[in-house]
Design a protein that fits this description.
Layout: H1 5-19, H2 22-26, E1 31-36, E2 41-44, H3 46-52, H4 56-59, H5 73-85, E3 90-92, E4 99-101, E5 107-119, E6 122-131, H6 133-151, H7 155-170, E7 174-179, E8 184-187, H8 189-195, H9 199-202, H10 218-227, E9 232-240, E10 246-257, E11 263-272, H11 274-316, H12 323-349, E12 358-361, H13 362-377, E13 381-384, E14 393-396, H14 398-414, E15 420-431, H15 433-439, E16 444-453, H16 460-463, H17 483-493, E17 497-503, E18 507-515, E19 540-544, H18 548-560, E20 564-568, H19 571-580, E21 587-591, H20 599-609, E22 614-619, H21 623-629, E23 636-639, H22 644-655
Parallel strand pairs: 13-15, 19-20, 19-21, 21-22, 22-23
Antiparallel strand pairs: 1-2, 1-6, 3-5, 4-5, 5-6, 7-8, 7-11, 9-10, 10-11, 12-14, 15-16, 16-18, 17-18
Helix pairs in contact: 6-7, 11-12, 11-18, 12-14, 13-14, 14-17, 19-20
Length: 656
C-alpha cells in the first residue's frame, strides 16, 4: 500500500502536537523545531517564529533547510543523516561555526541541541536552537582584548577593557572570572540574577560555594583541565542559588592568559537550562505514557476479544441447559463483565478509551474504584468512604470519573509520607441564583464529590497554581505536573466545578461539583429485562471478523434472530463478498482492528459502491484508529465483549 507523504507529515504533526503541545514548547526560552526523518518541519514554537521571522503555518511542512544558509546545507544534510543512524541527545556548536537563516535572508550564529523522539509514525528530531550572537560578540571582544594585551598597555587598552566590562555586565548569561585556585575575580549582572548573590558577596570567595555537596570534585577537575590549556564547552551540571534552589546549567569554561601567554585563570559562561531540562523530562514522561498506552491498547484488544467469546457463549448456552447449569453460566457472564470493566479502567488511565458519558451513581462507582485505591495507597493510609443511602446521579464518562478519584488519591498519598487518612464522600446540594452569580455557576441541583486528606497541606501560593499544566512541587523526574491539570480538564468537560481548600500541617480537601443527572433517569435507559428488538424479515448482514470463534458465535446470535449473514475473515474478503453477492446487503458489521485492511479502510472502500449500506463497528480496542477516523455521524461502535441484547440493539438502531 502506498503512503501519501503529505498525510504522513500531517500524522507526524498530529503526533508531535500530542507529545509536544504549544504550552510545552512555548515555555522554552529557545527556538524549537520538530523535524521528521525526511528533514520536514512538523512542529515549531513561538520563539522559532520570533527568531526566524516566519509564522508557524509557513514553517510546518517546509524542509528544515529553509532555516539553514545555502553554504552550510550540504554539511547540515550529512549531520542529520549521521544523527538518524546513531540517535542520541547531542549538542552541536563546539568547534563548529553554525548559522541560522532568517526569513529576510540575514544570518546569525546558533547552538543546536538535538533530541530523538520516537512516534507511532516514525522518528522525529527535536531541535533546540539558541541564538548565540551575544556570546559570539563577547568571545570576539575577549579575543580582541587579548590581542591588545599582547601589543600594548595603553589607555586604549583600558578603554577596551571598560567596553568589555560593559558588554559582559549586560549579558543575561552568568559570566564568572576566577583564578586557578577557584577564587572568584569577576561576577557580572547575569550571575547576580541567576544565583542571587551580588558581586560584593562573591568576589574573593571560592566558586565551589555554588556546587552541591554531592559534587565535591567537579570544579577542581575543571580547573585542572584549564591549567593544561583545555576548554570545557557546553558542560551540563547543577548549581545552587543563594536561597538554596538547584539550577541546571550549561557551562563553557575557557583559560585566561596574561600578556606573556601564561594561563592565570578561567572564565566561565553559564546559562540556566532548568526550564529546558524540565521540558525534556516531561517529554520523556509523555513518551513513557505513550508506550504504556500502546501496550495497554494491545492487551485490551486481545483480552476483550477473549472475553467476547466467553460472553457470546454465555448468551447462547442457557437455552440448552437446565436451571442449575444456567446459574453457573450466569457466574461466568458476571466474571466476564468484571474483566471488561477492568480493561476499560486500564484504558482510561492510559487515556486510550474514547470518552463516552453515561448516567451513573457516583456512590456505586466509588465501590469499584476503592478496589484500585487500596494497593495504590499502601497499608499506612486508611481509606474512608462513608456509605450514602441517597443516590448521587451524574452524567460523566466512568473511566474519567475513576481517573479523577485516583489522581486526587495519589496526590494525597504523596502528602502523607508517614501515613494518614483519605476520606472520599458524596452529597447532594441545591445552588440558588445568588450563589451561582457569586461563583459563576449555573443554579440548580449538583452532586458533590469530596476527596480529603490529613497530610502536609500547601501554602496559598501553591494552592493558586496547582491546576496549571506542568506545575509541580516535586523534583524533576518525580512528577509531570499533569495530574491535577487533567482532573481540572475532566471536571470542566463534564460541566462541573472544582475548589481546593488547604492549610499547612492540616491537610487538603478537593470539592468537585457535577450537575445532577437524576432528572435523566429512565430517558433512553435500558429496561431491566433487556427485551430484544423485534425481528426483521429479509435483512442481510455482512459480518467481517478475523477471529474464527468470535465470528461463528456472532453469526449464530444474528441468525437466531432471523438475520441472513454473510461471513468474511478480513477486509479483502468482505469486498469480495460484496462484489459476488447480487442481492442487497443491508448492513456491514465489522471489527475495527483486523489483519491487512482494517475496518475503517473497508468502510471507505465500500462506501464508493454501496453508500446506502449501514455500518456498525465492533472492537475490543479502537485506540487512535477510532479517534483519527472519527466514528461519528450515525456510525455506531459496539465494544467487546457485548451481550446478545447489545448486539441486536445496535444493529436495530443502525437500520433505523
Amino acid at each position: 500500500m502506498s503512503v501519501n507523504p503529505e498525510e504522513n507529515i500531517h500524522s507526524q504533526q498530529s503526533m508531535a502536537e500530542t507529545l509536544l503541545s504549544h504550552s510545552i514548547l512555548d515555555a522554552m526560552p529557545d527556538a524549537v523545531a520538530a523535524v521528521n526523518r525526511q528533514g520536514v518541519i512538523v512542529q515549531v514554537n513561538s520563539q522559532a517564529e520570533a527568531i526566524f521571522g516566519y509564522t508557524r503555518d509557513e514553517l510546518i511542512g517546509q524542509s528544515v533547510e529553509v532555516l539553514v544558509p545555502e553554504r552550510q546545507r550540504a554539511n547540515h544534510d550529512q549531520h542529520r543523516e549521521e544523527f538518524h543512524r546513531r540517535p542520541k541527545i547531542r549538542r552541536m556548536g563546539s568547534g563548529l561555526d553554525l548559522y541560522g537563516r532568517r526569513r529576510d535572508g540575514s544570518e546569525f550564529p546558533v547552538e543546536i541541541s538535538l533530541s530523538p523522539v520516537e512516534t507511532g509514525n516514525g522518528p522525529i528530531v527535536l531541535s533546540v536552537i539558541r541564538d548565540i550572537s551575544d556570546r559570539k560578540h563577547i568571545e570576539e571582544e575577549l579575543r580582541r582584548v587579548n590581542e591588545e594585551l599582547e601589543r600594548r598597555k595603553t589607555r586604549e587598552l583600558r578603554d577596551s577593557q571598560n567596553r568589555l566590562a560593559l558588554i559582559v555586565d549586560s549579558s543575561q548569561d552568568a559570566i564568572i572570572g576566577k583564578n586557578l585556585d577557584g577564587i572568584i575575580t569577576q561576577w557580572n549582572k547575569g550571575a547576580e540574577q541567576m544565583y542571587g548573590y551580588t558581586a560584593r558577596e562573591m568576589i574573593g570567595r571560592n566558586v565551589s560555594l555554588l556546587c552541591p555537596p554531592d559534587q565535591p570534585d567537579e570544579i577542581p577537575g575543571i580547573l585542572d583541565k584549564v591549567r593544561h590549556g583545555k576548554r570545557v564547552e557546553y558542560y551540563e551540571s547543577v548549581r545552587l542559588t543563594k536561597d538554596g534552589r538547584r539550577l541546571h546549567v550549561s557551562l563553557s569554561v575557557s583559560p585566561i592568559h596574561d600578556a606573556d601567554g601564561k594561563i592565570v585563570g578561567a572564565s566561565a559562561i553559564g546559562r540556566n537550562i532548568t526550564a529546558q531540562k524540565r521540558i525534556e523530562d516531561q517529554l520523556r514522561q509523555s513518551q513513557k505514557m505513550e508506550a504504556i498506552g500502546r501496550l495497554a491498547g494491545g492487551v485490551a484488544h486481545d483480552f476483550n476479544n477473549l472475553l467476547g467469546i466467553v460472553t457470546a457463549c454465555t448468551e447462547l448456552l442457557p437455552g440448552h441447559l437446565d436451571k442449575e447449569s444456567r446459574e453457573y453460566v450466569d457466574n461466568i457472564r458476571e466474571a466476564a463483565k468484571r474483566g471488561a470493566s477492568l480493561t476499560r479502567q486500564l484504558l482510561a488511565f492510559s487515556r486510550r478509551q474514547p470518552v463516552q458519558a453515561q448516567i451513573l451513581d457516583v456512590n456505586e462507582r466509588l465501590k469499584e474504584v476503592s478496589k484500585l485505591l487500596k494497593p495504590l495507597m499502601g497499608g499506612d493510609v486508611e481509606i474512608v468512604i462513608p456509605s450514602r443511602a441517597t443516590a448521587a446521579i451524574v452524567e460523566v464518562d466512568p473511566g474519567q470519573l475513576d481517573q479523577i478519584v485516583v489522581n486526587l488519591a495519589v496526590n494525597a498519598r504523596d502528602a502523607m509520607p508517614r501515613g494518614g487518612k483519605l476520606i472520599i464522600e458524596t452529597g447532594g446540594i441545591d445552588l440558588d441564583e445568588g450563589f451561582g452569580r457569586e461563583h459563576s455557576m449555573t443554579p440548580g441541583r449538583y452532586v458533590m464529590l469530596a476527596v480529603s486528606d490529613n497530610g502536609t497541606g500547601m501554602d496559598e501560593a501553591t494552592r493558586l497554581r496547582i491546576f496549571e499544566p506542568f506545575f509541580t512541587t516535586k523534583e524533576i523526574g518525580k512528577g509531570s505536573g499533569l495530574g491535577l491539570a487533567t482532573v481540572y480538564g475532566i471536571v470542566k468537560q463534564s460541566g462541573g466545578h472544582i475548589w481546593v481548600y488547604s492549610e499547612i500541617g492540616h491537610g487538603t480537601a478537593f470539592k468537585i461539583y457535577l450537575p445532577s443527572a437524576e432528572h435523566k433517569l429512565g430517558l433512553g435507559s435500558e429496561t431491566s429485562t433487556e427485551a430484544l428488538p423485534a425481528k426483521r424479515e429479509g435483512v442481510t448482514i455482512l459480518l467481517a471478523e478475523d477471529d474464527p470463534i468470535m465470528r461463528k458465535l456472532t453469526r449464530k446470535m444474528l441468525e437466531e434472530h432471523g438475520y441472513k449473514v454473510l461471513e468474511a475473515i478480513d477486509g479483502e474478503a468482505a469486498l469480495e463478498a460484496i462484489a459476488k453477492h447480487s442481492a442487497r446487503i443491508d448492513l456491514l458489521l465489522t471489527d475495527v482492528v483486523m489483519k491487512g485492511m482494517n475496518g475503517p479502510e473497508l468502510v471507505l472502500r465500500m462506501m464508493d459502491t454501496h453508500p446506502e449500506m449501514k455500518v456498525v463497528y465492533m472492537s475490543g480496542y479502537t485506540g487512535e484508529l477510532v479517534m483519527h477516523q472519527g466514528l461519528q455521524g450515525g456510525i455506531r461502535l459496539l465494544e467487546k465483549p457485548f451481550t446478545r441484547w447489545a448486539l441486536l440493539k445496535s444493529i436495530d438502531e443502525a437500520l433505523g
